[in-house]
Amino acid sequence: MIKALLRIFITGIAVWCCVQWLPGFGWQGTTGNEFLNLAIISVIMGLLNLVVKPIIQVLSLPITCLTLGLFCIIINTIMLYLSSWLSHSLFGVGLSIPDFGTAIVAALIISLVSVVLQGLLRVNSSSTTS
């Protein structure tokens, strides 16, 4: 449970980095509070990555093997678009993604920031003690 919450927090930091670094990538329909926008997007991205992404990865395994794993970037981009659309539909808060190229760069930034922070915070390490 704590690992899931920590991953959602890390996703929030990664999305915030994209909003700050990428021109044109920002909020679509805000609640007036940037933290609340970020929390909504992060929770929805976390839930989609937990439930939907493994199904998409299994279904797209042949094309992922043919592209030597590069199709994973497209899967991450699709998950970004899906989480933005879903959060905008449910809560009126989404991400403004100007074009597909920006979405790919945003997916790469989110992936890299998440990997670095998960490594620093040791989210994926086992909790066995010696």
Please explain how this structure is put together.
There is one protein chain. This protein starts with a helix and ends in a 9-residue tail after the last helix. It has a two-stranded antiparallel sheet with strand order 1-2. α4 packs across α5 (100-121). It has five helices and two strands, in the order αβαααβα. It is 73% helix and 5% strand. By secondary structure, the chain is mostly helical. The model has no long low-confidence stretch (mean pLDDT 88).
Concise account of the structure shown:
The protein contains five helices and two strands, in the order H-E-H-H-H-E-H. It has helices at residues 2-21, 34-59, 61-66, 71-91, 100-121, and strands at residues 26-28, 94-96. Strands 1-2 form a two-stranded antiparallel ribbon.
Strand order, sheet with most strands: 1-2
DSSP E strands, number: 2
Number of helices: 5
What is the multimeric organization of the chains shown?
single chain
- Alpha-beta classification: mainly alpha
User: Sheet bearing the most strands, described?
Assistant: 2 strands, antiparallel
User: What radius of gyration results from the CA coordinates?
Assistant: 15 Å
Would you list the SSEs in sequence order as H and E?
A: HEHHHEH
In the predicted model, the low-confidence regions spanning at least 5 consecutive residues are: none
N-end to C-end Cα span: 23 Å
Share of helix among residues?
over 70%
- Overall 3D form: globular
Strand content: under 5%
Global mean pLDDT: 88
